[in-house]
Amino acid sequence: MAFAKTIRRCRAWLALGAIGLATAGCNQHFSPNPPAAPPEYERRHPILLTRATQTATIEIGSHRPTITGIQQSDIAGFARAFRMDGEGAIAVNVPSGTANEAAAAHAARDIRRILEENGVPAHAIAHRPYRPEGGVPAPPIVLSYTRLRASVPHVCAVTTDIDMGFDTQQWENYGCATQRNLAAIVANPNDLQGPRPMDRPPAQRRYEVLDRFYRGSDTSTEYRNPTAGSASRVGVQ
After folding, report:
1. Which segments within the chain are labelled E, that is strand?
2. Which residue has the higher pLDDT, 90 or 35?
3. I need a labelling partner for 3 at 20 to 30 A (CA). Which of 10, 18, 38, 66 fits?
């Protein structure tokens, strides 16, 4: 009888232990109060607008004060980029106290001329002498201007193993690469802050439509050749 009672007690304790383990497992994976979801990826990886310096170097030798054809193309492209997104003025940093000082001063005048020919106003070009460090005998002329740049302020690093676990929330690195790519390809960083204002409607077209409306005429446009924009006639009998 004592042995039978002992067996029954062991079975009861084993049953209670199994129930406790099952309850603990349910509490671990199916908690009625799950942790708060992480914030949106736009908040974890925000795109910030900062000022950046855009530069271009023009190599000038000690005995060659002229600008080559390739350098002229580079300067013209730099001028177009400044007109698109530049702020302030283009700084033409000319080396001083070097072996190519005279050649650089002559080339700087040609650079100013090329910049003006490509749409940069004369008042937006500033000459600045500089002394290179390290005793460089023939340092380059450095063109620079400030522009607005969009970027994510941190590196996209994978810190969580998403293969291990049952959480269905966004992981920390989610969306970081997309945000960095968007910041790199956007043409105008100001577009990330808000939409641009709408252009004014063409006055001539607006007057014509309103005039037809006042006269009770049809205001729709009549196209001379409605099928002129067809890209293909496949399947046309």
Report:
1. 48-58, 86-95, 125-130, 141-151
2. 90
3. 18
Amino acid occupying residue 60: I
The Cα 120–Cα 112 span in angstroms is 9
Per residue in 71-130, pLDDT (tens digit) is: 999 999 999 999 988 999 999 999 998 888 999 999 999 999 999 999 999 999 999 999
pLDDT, tens digit (0-9, with 9 covering 90-100), for 140-170 = 999 999 999 999 988 888 776 666 666 667 7
Closest CA to 158 of 145, 169, 168, 172: 172
Token pair for residue 108? Answer: 């700087």
Q: In terms of residues, how long is the chain?
A: 237
| Count of C-beta atoms within a 10 Å radius of residue 5 | 9
Q: What is the DSSP string of 168-201?
A: -SPPTTTTHHHHHHHHHH-S-GGGGTSPPPPPPP
| Cβ-contact 93, 143 below 8 angstroms | yes
> Is 163 in a helix, a strand, or coil?
coil
CB 144 within 8 A of CB 81: no
State the average pLDDT over residues 30-58.
76
Question: Which among 131, 120, 147 is positioned nearest to 55, based on CA atoms?
Answer: 147
Distance of CA 36 to the CA centre of its chain: 31
CB 79 within 8 A of CB 119: yes
